[in-house]
Design goal:
The chain is built from 3 helices and 9 strands. Bound molecules: copper (II) ion.
């Protein structure tokens, strides 16, 4: 093959791997339930991961004082009384990373009572595997006329 064609072809392959819609449809949306313990001044678990389109059910259980939970970007909130639980249901239709925070002043460290909700798609994994494969292949390709001259 003409060495001058190798680089453009290789870059085109990379773009195809990175941006072509996957033939496999993403997993069907699920209902995901999380039980979150709230106590001064943390949530457990504090990191939640769901797929875009999932129905998220948060059950907030307060272990000590009144706590709340507000999800940034979704404008969804609940409040749980001491020893009680409260449930919140919403559809994770926006992808990205969102903070959730306590919205009831529960003590001195209240502003630090935060957690993270990640709403993501899984296809980046397949794409990164494909790009890594291309990078390995690319390491052996003669990209410049200088390197192909050396081979001769
Ligand atoms: Cu609080």
């Amino acid at each position: 093959m003409n060495p001058r064609l190798v680089l453009p072809l290789f870059m085109a392959a990379g773009l195809i791997v990175a941006f072509t819609p996957l033939p496999i449809p993403p997993a069907a949306p699920q209902a995901r339930t999380f039980e979150i313990d709230a106590r001064q001044f943390s949530y457990s678990p504090s990191e939640l991961k769901v797929a875009q389109g999932d129905t998220v059910i948060l059950r907030l259980v307060s272990q000590d004082v009144v706590h709340g939970l507000y999800v940034d970007g979704y404008a969804a909130s609940i409040t749980a009384d001491p020893g009680q639980s409260a449930a919140l249901t919403f559809i994770a239709d926006k992808a990205g990373s969102f903070r959730f925070r306590c919205n009831v002043t529960c003590g001195a460290m209240h502003p630090f009572m935060i957690g993270k909700l990640t709403v993501g798609t899984n296809d980046w994994l397949y794409r990164s595997v494909g790009l890594a494969f291309l990078a390995v292949v690319g390491a052996f390709l003669p990209f410049t006329s200088a390197s192909s001259r050396k081979v001769k």
